Amino acid sequence: MELKTLLTGFLEHLELVKNMSQGTIKMYAFYLLDFIAFVKEETGHEPLLEDISEEIVNKYRLNLNRRISGKSKLGYKRSTQKVYLVSLRSFLKWLSVDKGYNTISAEKIELGRAEAQVPKFLDNKELNELMLVQNPAKKSGLRDRAMLELLFSTGLRVSELVGLDKSDFTPAIFYRGEFTVIGKGRKPRTVYLSDRAKVALKAYLSVRNDEFEPLFVRYSGIDMAEGDATGESLRLTIRSVERLVKRYALKAGIREDVTPHTLRHSYATDLLAAGADLRSVQELLGHANVSTTQIYTHVTNRRLKEVYGKFHGKS
């Protein structure tokens, strides 16, 4: 059977059984189509299930390890290679365990050890500067301040942020200071609004005299949305939010490469530095495993050092 046909079944499995988001499914498709294209180049024909062998997988791993990134002109990082291989392992596991096909074991694909990732985050001074460079005299300025305050207040993923609607923010939500967001795997979690986020959101919503549904909309090309009663075509995209965050970071004089995820890292770091435990932060971030949250232990380690210096040998 052709691998492309089997891939279609696997992607449907991810959607219907694993309840994965469309964004995640697209990424699986991207990585696995890359593998299928490699196998086609190696075999000279449309890849079949029986073409998957330890030899072909090892060749693919070497190919990934020797690839040059178009952007950085450097080789693929271990973490990047790992994402490709994790997708392939999941596919092979589905083929053998769920579908009963005779193919190589997923466990034969060793992932290797990726380099430790220390998350980048902003300190309080940088955060304050970032939140104050928008022009409040413009609707777009009010929008962008609300967007940045919301990202830091809640630790939302950018995909979660752009999916929000105006109707998500009722008077009751502002009163309670919390709302529910649907995260990865379509799992709901509660996030909380800071006083600053409430003020920024209310200021932005007060100038939204339209009937469009999305919480964050673009103001350029708004006349092209005629016939779009819901304003869905005006919803800010992930890429547009990334560009806005970078622009304001530069305007605030921050030299580090700042992304929406930097604000999520800053949110987690701020909580841990204030004394929150790792399990609570895991819940607030919507991580399925606490191991994912452990990238923030650089903060807890620093606090442990402070405790050690304060108390050890003082008796």
Key words describing this protein structure:
315 residues; mainly alpha; DNA polymerase, domain 1; hpI Integrase, Chain A; 2 domains; two-stranded antiparallel ribbon; 14 helices; 2 strands; globular; cytoplasm; cell cycle; Tyrosine recombinase XerC
Number of strands: 2
Say which CATH homologous superfamily of the largest domain is assigned.
Intergrase catalytic core
Low-confidence stretches: none
Class computed from helices, strands and strand pairing: mainly alpha
Could you give the order of the helices and strands?
Answer: HHHHHHHHEEHHHHHH
Name of the top-level CATH class of the largest domain: Mainly Alpha
CATH third-tier fold name of the largest domain: hpI Integrase, Chain A
Shape: globular
Overall number of domains: 2
Protein name: Tyrosine recombinase XerC
Subcellular location: Cytoplasm
GO biological process, one term: cell division
Domain Tyr recombinase: 117-309
Protein architecture, described:
It is a single chain. With 315 residues, the protein is mainly alpha-helical. It has 2 domains: 3-108, DNA polymerase, domain 1; 124-306, hpI Integrase, Chain A. Helix content is 54%, strand content 3%. It has 14 helices and 2 strands; from the N terminus they run ααααααααββαααααα. The protein has helices at 3-16, 22-43, 54-66, 78-98, 124-131, 139-154, 158-162, 171-176, 195-205, 238-251, 260-273, 278-285, 290-293, 297-311; strands spanning 178-182, 188-192. The protein has a two-stranded antiparallel ribbon with strand order 1-2. β1 and β2 form a beta hairpin. α1 runs antiparallel to α2, α6 (139-154) packs antiparallel against α9 (195-205) and α6 (139-154) packs across α11. The longest helix is centred in the N-terminal third of the chain and has 22 residues, at 22-43. The chain is globular, with a radius of gyration of 23 Å. The model has no long low-confidence stretch (mean pLDDT 87). InterPro entries: CB (IPR044068), DNA_brk_join_enz (IPR011010), Integrase-like_cat_sf (IPR013762), Integrase_catalytic (IPR002104), Integrase_recombinase_N (IPR010998), Integrase_SAM-like_N (IPR004107), Tyrosine_recombinase_XerCD (IPR050090). One of its GO terms (biological process) is DNA recombination. Keywords: Cell cycle, Cell division, Chromosome partition, Cytoplasm, DNA integration, DNA recombination, DNA-binding. This is Tyrosine recombinase XerC. It comes from candidate division WWE3 bacterium CG08_land_8_20_14_0_20_40_13.
